[in-house]
Structure formats: C-alpha cells, structure tokens
Amino acid sequence: MGRYSGRSSRLVLMCVVSLMLFAVEIAVAHVGNSLSLASDAFAVLSHLISMIIGLFGVRFSRIRWHKANTFGFSRADVLGAFGNAIFATALMFSIFVEAIKRFINPQKTENALLVLIVGIVGLFFNVFNYVIFMDCCYCRAPQGDTETGDSPNDQKSPEEGPEKKKQKKSEALNIRGVLLHVMGDALGSVVVVVAATIFQVLPLENAPCNWQCYIDPSLTIIMVFIILSSAFPLIKETSTILLQMVPKGVNMQLLTDRLARIAGVSSLHEVHVWELAGGKNIATLHIKCQTPADYQDAAYKIRTVFHEAGIHSVTIQPEYVDHKTSQLLCSSPCISKACDSQLCCSQREHPLAKTNGYTEKNDSWLSAQHKDNGSSKNDTEIPIEYPQAEDGIQNVKNCGVCDDKSRLSSTRL
Amino acid sequence: RWWQNRRARLLCMLALTFLFFVVEVVVSRVTSSLAMLSDSFHMLSDVMALVVALVAVRFAQRTRATKKNTFGWVRAEVMGALVNAVFLTALCFTILLEAIERFTEPHEIQKPLVVIGVGVAGLIINLLGLCLFNHHGVGGHGHSHGHGHSHGGRQHPRSGPKPEQPPGDGEAALHREETSTLVENCSSSNGVSQDKLGDMKDDMTDLQVNGNAGHYPLDVEEVEEDSSAQLNMRGVFLHVFGDALGSVIVVVNALLFYGLWNPCRKDEPCFNPCVNNHCMENATLSQTLGRENKSEQESITVAGPCWLLYLDPVLCLIMVCILLYTTYPLLRESALILLQTVPKQIDVHSLNSKLRTLDGVEAVHELHIWQLAGSRIIGTAHIKCPDPSTYMMVAKRIKEIFHDEGIHATTIQPEFASVGSESGRGKCEFPCRTQCALKQCCGAGEDNTIKKTEKSSSISISCSEVVIEFPKTRRTKSESIPSVKLEANTDQNEQFESSL
C-alpha cells in the first residue's frame, strides 16, 4: 500500500520525539514536584505505546497466513489497543492515588518556570502530533491506528446504499472521536500550563501551602477523568472483538429468523458470528437439509443473507435430516459424545437453533427439554442417535484420545 | 469443600485484602507516615486485581450462547488473565519510576518500627493469599465440587446385565449412526424398534461407565475448566506474589534501617552526607561546618551508612525484574489465545496434508484452527469434493482427523467442483461477492461461480497460501442440480428456540 512508507517513517519519528518528551516531562515533574506534569507525561507514554503498536501492526497485518495463525495477525492491532488502554488505566489509577495523597499532604510546585516551559512544549507536541498524522490517518479512515480504536475499512468500494451510508457515518464518528481525543490531550497540557502559571505568577517562596497547592491535584484528577473517558470506550470496543462477541451491527435474532426462512433449510444450529478485526466478520453454522440439492440452493441464499448483514466469510456445514435426530441437534458433532465438554458450545443446550417451521415428531418432548435449559444440572441427555445402517466399524477411537489431547494441551500451553 | 471453589477463594482474599487496606490507611493517618499510605495503595491495586479475576470467573461460568455472544462467555477468564498481567506490568513500571526517583533523592524511613509491624502483617496476608492461589493446587482439587456447568446428565452406572459389553460396540453404534445421518438414506431409519433403541441406550451408558470413560465427563470438565481458569488464577497469584515481594522488601529494609541506621536526632547538630546532591555536598558541608562552633566539631554526628538509603531502590529494582520475568509468560499465553493463534500442539501444515491426502478430497482451503479458551479448540475448513456422495464417505474421516488433533468443534463446508476439473485447488466455490473481498477474513478476489447473474473472472488468490498450484481450468458454474424445494415451508409453526 502506498501509504506504508510515508506513514511508517512518520510513526518512527513521532515515537522518538515522544520518548524524549516523556523522559523530559517525567524528570521535570519530579524536580518541580508537579503532579499534573507527571500525568501528562503518562499520557504521552500511552500515546507512544500506541504508536509502537501501530508500527508493529502495520508490519504484521501484511502477513496473511502464518503457521502460527491461520487468520494472519490483523488482530494484533486490536489486542495492542486493548493492552494499551488497560496500561493507561493502570497508570491513571496510580496518578489518582498520588493526587489523593497530595490532597492529604499538599505540596507546592517548585521551579514553576521550568514546569511552565515544559508544559507549553507538551502542548505544541500535541498539536504537532495531530498535524503530522492528519492527512494520512485522521481524515480518511485510519487503518490500524490504535488511538482511534479499530480500523474501519478503508476501501471505498461501491456498496449498496445502506452500506455506503453506514460507512460515511462511521467515518464521521471516527473523525469526531479523533478530534475529541486530541482535544482531551491538549487539555491535559493546558492544565499543566495553568497550574504552573499560577505558581509562577504567585510564587510561594517559603510560606506554607495555601489554596494554590490544591489546584495541582484537582486539575490532575480532571485530567485523569479525561484520559479515562477516552480509554474506556476503546476497552469496550476491543473487548467486544476479543471476546468473540457478536459484532455491533448484527442482530442475531433477525439473522437467524431470516436464515430459517430460506427454502431448503430445515433447521439450523451452531450459528456463530464474530468479528476478526476491523470489520471482518466471520460466521459458521450448521444447517439441516433434506437433500444435497437443497443444500446447494440454500447455500447461495444463505450467503446472500449474511452478505446483507455484513458478514462475508461464511462456512456452512450441511447435515442431512433423518427422522431419528432432533431437528435442533447437530448430527455430527465430534465423533463421540464424550467430547462434548470440548465443543465450543455444549450440545446439551440449544443455542440459537431454529427450525424452519418443520413439525417435529417429538415436539412435546423437545419443548420439555428446552424448558430444562435453564438449569444445566438436570439430567437432560442428548437423544442418542441410534444406529441403523450396517456400515462397517471403522476407527473405534473413543474419546480417551480427546482426553489425552486436552490434558496435553493444558500442560504444554 | 468451600475453599476449593475458585470464587470462594477469591472472595475470601478480597475481603482480607480490603480489610488490611483500611487498617493500613488508618494506621498511616495515625502515625502520619506517608510511606505506609503508599503501601496501602498497593493493597488497593491487589483488591482491583482480585475484582477483575472475580468478574472474569462470574462471566466465564455462563458457557451458553447468548444473543450477544454466540460462544458463551468462556473467554472471559483469558481476558481477565490478560488484564491482570497488563495491570501488573503497569505497576512494575510505576515502581520502576519511583525507584529511579529514590536513587536521585534518597529518603530515610521514618518510624521504622511501625513500618516493620505493618509490613509483617501485610506479608502474612500475602503469604496466605499465595497458599490460596497456588496454581499448582488449582488443578488437583477439581473433582469434588459440583460446578454450575458440570455435566448433570451423567448417567448412573447400571450394574446391569451387560457390563461386559465391549466398548467397541457402543462406539461402533455411534459411528454407524454418524455415517447414516450423513448418508441420505432416510428410509432405513424407519425400521428400528423401540426396545432396540433402549438396548443401545444401555450400551452408551455402559460405555461411559467402562473403560476410562467412566468418571470421564467430570474429569474432562475439570481439566478443561482449569486450563482456562488456570490462566486467570495465575494472574491473581502473580499479583499477590508481587505484593508479597513488596512486603518482604519493606520489612527487610525497615529491619536493616532500624538496626544499622544512625539517625540524625533533632536536638543534636548533625550532618547527613547522604541526602544531598553530589554537587551540593561541598557547599552544605562547609555551611554546616561553618555554622557550628569549631570546638564542637568532634561531636557532630554523621548520619548512618549511606548505602542503606540506596538499599530500597535496589531491592525495588530486583523485585521489578522478578515480577516482569514471571508475568511475561502469562501475558504471552493469554495474548496468543486472544489473537486466534493455532494452539501450540497442533501443526496446521500436517493437518492440511492429512486432509488433502484423503480419497475423495480434491482440495482443502480456508482451514482455520483457533482456541476459544481452555481446551475448546474450533476448526473450520472448506473441503472440495467431486460430488456429494464422495463427500458423505469422507466426512466422517475428516471429523476423525480433526478429533485426533484435539479439535472437536468443527464446521466443514463441502464444495463440489464442476465436472471435469482436475486441479481444483485453492478457489472457494462460495465466496462472497467480489467487492467483499477485503472484508473477508482471508483471501481476496476469488472467482464466484455460484452467482447466477454475474460471472466474474477476476484473478483468484488462493485462500490458503500453503497451497501453491494454479487452477488450470476456468471455473464454470457448478453442476446444475435440480432444485428440489421443500414444500410447506410456511412460517406459521416456526419454533423460536433461544437459550436466553
């Protein structure tokens, strides 16, 4: 991508400058005994970390497939942003604790002039940061810019109407978020400048602390809240992705309703939708069809439904209906029932499984079973699918293998 | 036993730590010792770590799929572990900054006795926590407690007429039924009578009782539980460990200080060579000496050995190193799970080749293996076969291959190549439309042969880079299969099943 070289070198430059600024700010904060400068320094540090993550993210995201990760490393950005937000929260927590200590035990800011100068330098740095990254990252949808959360899709392909509008709206939101963020950081530097100015203008040489000494901690607490207010949404967003939650724009109920209505689909189960990173949604599901012909037909329609929902990587497993199996249960979970605990979702419950208006033979029994879902302690047994055909016995490995593998995995991790 | 329950342990430690925090704050106000106040806030960070772990445990108990999360919340514990690890790293960082500050401006410890007392109390509490959360212990105690999501459905062994039922039979029964559901001979299912079904049910039971599958489901449950819960508890353990180290340092420092330090008492003239800067040393020395009467020079007390003041930051640095060294593996492990990496024990290449060498499998693509949490590994693959009946034959084999690797939750998508194509590799028969290429999880710009209206012959990039072969034949529409639609597909009797 053409943006790579320009952006990467800018990132490196900003990283170096940030590092120096952080060191200077922390040293001066210690010398001048100014807590707000220390909190500004931590804000600079967290930006530095996010830039480093962005650098690595750009490098990693070009790996499409790797032995260690079949999805490539596009999630590294998200994870990095999450880690950075947690780190910033922890740092802010320690600053908050310091501020409380200063309320109990007020101290004055010395060397106010030095603190003032460094505060102004920090303010200019913030503006500089914004300017440097504006054309490449902030105005167009940034990719992998961890400061603004996930990277929205930056390809303006001709989409259908609602998609385009959604994209524009998300871009506008993105820009607004970025502006807010930048303003928040600038406000931090402003706070430093204000506190230092007060001490410079009204110096407290050897007098005991008066009201002036309380300005620093109070403004610091305000700054902590500002920074936290930008960290928390980021935490929420990234944890939505990391926890494999259903992505924000997708309504599972609606989706499964639509899917169940497709001709050829008797029922569906094990529907999973999740977001890999940056707008890439992935879905898997199992459907029950009567015949393979049904499956072929239904597959296309299923994909259409998913496509309209914004999910473009779909894996569909067809299972063929026989009257013994309940409509809602997987006909082919793992090869043995004993592996149930290692399935991603237990077969004893019926998550989001739907039938297609197909009247079940054992309707009443089924509904009774579903009522039992609330308490998993009940003795709901999976209806054993009974053998009928005479196919030869192949590979009789019982789930001792499951067990061994799982034990191995837990120790080798 | 209550203490074997994760939640109970966390709650207990939480209560203890919070209590101690309150006590420390009060004592610090009474003795107006700032050092104690800062130590008390370390306890507060411990409290926060415990809260995070508790929340994660609460969440992770809901393993059922919900509207918001189709996988259930099992991953919450891995996230909790990551949060704790990052939190710990941040804590180490602040301690590092403090230690550097102390190097430039060493402080004396005021009232070492009080510090010793509180330090010892904190150490005791932390040691208690260490015993509680010793993560080697977590794995062993799983059996006795009935957790919310342990298998309630485990059948009681029937000491019945068929204890000698060879386990092969039961398994074979399972396999037979597997194959039959995949094979579309629905007609054969009609002939099975009820009592035969009952017999088979017994077989299942006995299978579960005999062999190593007897105690089996609970064991697997516990092992699996612990594997992801282990991460969470490790995070808490490391936190408490860090706190314990901190308490040890505080106690050691205060003891040494109390024993060896020669303090400057207020009433005596005193010179403290340690506290000032090097640059200012001479000035202060001359100042101090100047102020004194020359005659009293011999009775000036010099404050105690200076290296004592540097002991604190040095010990802190050592502690930071130890903590970071022990936190890094936890950080790495939880990060790798969250990044959807392939679990370490699985070799994707060999799995891919095993699948490809099966008869009837022409190509394998979009093979993805990832770990949800603990031992729940999930796999998806698209298998290209010449026709549906071939697929039926290999489907079970495919599942077995996955099962052998420890991947039990799989979604296999069969794709049927068009008639007369030999190479058939790498291209998805069912990708999304071409403009969605960038939004697909992997691969871009694939040929879309299913679409009835448009035919796009864009360049195809194979989904899986392992496969390096160029498809020679142009893709045509897949074989036209008469679409047999199900009648009576009306939505009247739609049963809405939801696990909410």
UniProtKB/TrEMBL annotation, chain A:
Transmembrane stretches in the record are: 12-31, 37-58, 78-100, 112-133, 178-202, 214-235
Q: What is its main location?
A: membrane
Q: Which GO terms describe its molecular function?
A: zinc ion transmembrane transporter activity
Listed InterPro entries: Cation_efflux, Cation_efflux_CTD, Cation_efflux_TM, Cation_efflux_TMD_sf
| Residue ranges of domain Cation efflux protein cytoplasmic in the record | 249-319
Q: Where is the composition biased (Polar residues)?
A: 356-367
Specify the Cation efflux protein transmembrane domain's residue ranges: 12-243
| Nucleotide-binding in keyword set | no
For the biological process aspect of GO, one term held by this record is: intracellular zinc ion homeostasis
- What membrane topology term does the record carry? Multi-pass membrane protein
User: What NCBIfam families does UniProt report for this protein, alphabetically?
Assistant: CDF (TIGR01297)
What is the official name of this protein in its record? Answer: ZNT10 protein
Q: Which organism is it from?
A: Uria aalge (Common mure)
Q: What is the lineage of its organism?
A: Eukaryota, Metazoa, Chordata, Craniata, Vertebrata
Automatic annotation (TrEMBL), chain B:
| Entry's transmembrane regions | 41-60, 81-100, 112-133, 236-261, 307-328
**Biological processes per GO annotation:** detoxification of zinc ion; intracellular zinc ion homeostasis
Pfam families registered for this protein in UniProt: Cation_efflux, ZT_dimer
* Keyword Transport annotated: yes
Report biased composition (Basic residues) as residue ranges. Answer: 142-159
Q: Which GO terms describe its cellular component?
A: endoplasmic reticulum; Golgi apparatus; membrane
Q: Which residues form the signal peptide?
A: none
**Compartments where found:** Membrane
Asked if the Swiss-Prot or TrEMBL record annotates the protein with the keyword Nucleotide-binding, the reply is no
How is it placed in the membrane, per its record? Answer: Multi-pass membrane protein
Task: List the molecular function annotations (GO) for this entry.
Answer: calcium channel inhibitor activity; zinc ion transmembrane transporter activity
Return the PANTHER family for the record: FI23527P1, PROTON-COUPLED ZINC ANTIPORTER SLC30A1
What is stated as this protein's family in its record? Answer: Belongs to the cation diffusion facilitator (CDF) transporter (TC 2.A.4) family. SLC30A subfamily.
Its protein name is ZNT1 protein
Q: What organism is this sequence from?
A: Uria aalge (Common mure)
